[in-house]
Design a protein that fits this description.
It is globular, with a radius of gyration of 13 Å. Helices cover 0% and strands 47% of the residues. The chain is mainly beta and 124 residues long. It is built from no helices and eleven strands.
Length: 124
């Protein structure tokens, strides 16, 4: 069983930055693909970023490409999401997710483990 714990959310003004962290339990973290999703009130959960075991392989939707970056530190069992140039429409609960098969990408069904989420609020 893998447990994921997110941190780093908060309130920020438009144009500001935040860094989210997700720390995983378990000895096989380095082989997992990791991702971040977000869910705003009344909306479906949407893909934000993913990273495979090889940190050179990352994926982003167009809505965040160039503003968000994802990275991982396998020695610390931690994945990070750097959010820059934040917009009010980025306001959501951000969830960390783990794919033990290593595929990653945008499909929610790929991910077996989820964190509890961390709130990001961007004021205009």
């Amino acid at each position: 069983q893998v447990q994921l714990v997110e941190s780093g959310g908060g309130l920020v003004q438009a144009g500001g930055s935040l860094r989210l962290s997700c720390t995983a339990s378990g000895r096989t973290f380095s082989s997992y693909a990791m991702a971040w999703f977000r869910q705003a009130p009344g909306k479906e959960r949407e893909f934000v970023a993913s990273i495979r075991w090889s940190a050179s392989m990352t994926y982003f939707p167009d809505s965040v490409k160039g503003r968000f970056t994802i990275s991982r530190d396998n020695a610390k069992n931690t994945v990070y999401l750097q959010l820059n140039s934040l917009k009010p429409e980025d306001t959501a609960v951000y969830y960390c997710a783990a794919d033990p098969r290593g595929w990653g990408l945008a499909m929610i069904s790929n991910y077996d483990y989820w964190g509890q989420g961390t709130q990001v609020t961007v004021s205009s």
